[in-house]
Write a structure and sequence with these properties.
The chain has 8 helices and 3 strands. It is mostly helical. It has a 3-stranded antiparallel sheet.
């Protein structure tokens, strides 16, 4: 799958906490567009994005226009009205996150439908985040709050250097 609007960023710059929150917001959806307008300050804080992460993510929003000739390519608001929106395609974001953090995408690659791919990617991403968090557990097997706030690249870099 071609990942256009998020290709210039690396999700390893993001913390585990931010990726988990973003995946929960996507909710295994492979059809929707996450609208930039829906990300007010409150939502950004709930996602746990740092200001740097938000600037990176927000700068990669793409303009999506409804194609009224085909219902499959028409973007609708909650009331079913056709709209144009600036944002990110959920399936593209899921593929990009999975590839960036090294999640196993074999299951998702074997799926044909967008929803099936998105669901498989969500599972693979959560599994990979759990593996990454396991890399930073203390002697009691606990993951510290500060560890889930670290950029994933920092954690993976520590693992490579060890």
């Amino acid at each position: 799958m071609e990942v256009k609007n998020v290709s210039g960023m690396r999700f390893t710059q993001f913390s585990s906490q931010s990726i988990i929150a973003l995946m929960e917001w996507i909710g295994g959806d492979g059809h929707s567009v996450l609208g930039l307008e829906s990300l007010d300050d409150r939502r950004v804080r709930l996602l746990g994005f740092t200001p740097k992460e938000w600037v990176i993510f927000g700068s990669k929003a793409e303009w999506f226009e409804s194609d009224l000739s085909d219902p499959k390519s028409t973007i609708s608001d909650k009331d079913g009205n056709p709209i144009n929106v600036r944002g990110w395609h959920t399936l593209e974001v899921s593929w990009k996150i999975a590839r960036d953090i090294g999640a196993n995408t074999n299951e998702a690659s074997s799926k044909f439908g967008r929803g099936s791919q998105a669901s498989a990617l969500a599972t693979a991403i959560h599994a990979r985040i759990a593996e990454i968090c396991d890399m930073v557990t203390n002697e009691y097997g606990e993951v510290s709050r500060s560890a889930v706030m670290l950029p994933i690249a920092t954690i993976l870099g520590t693992e490579v250097a060890a």
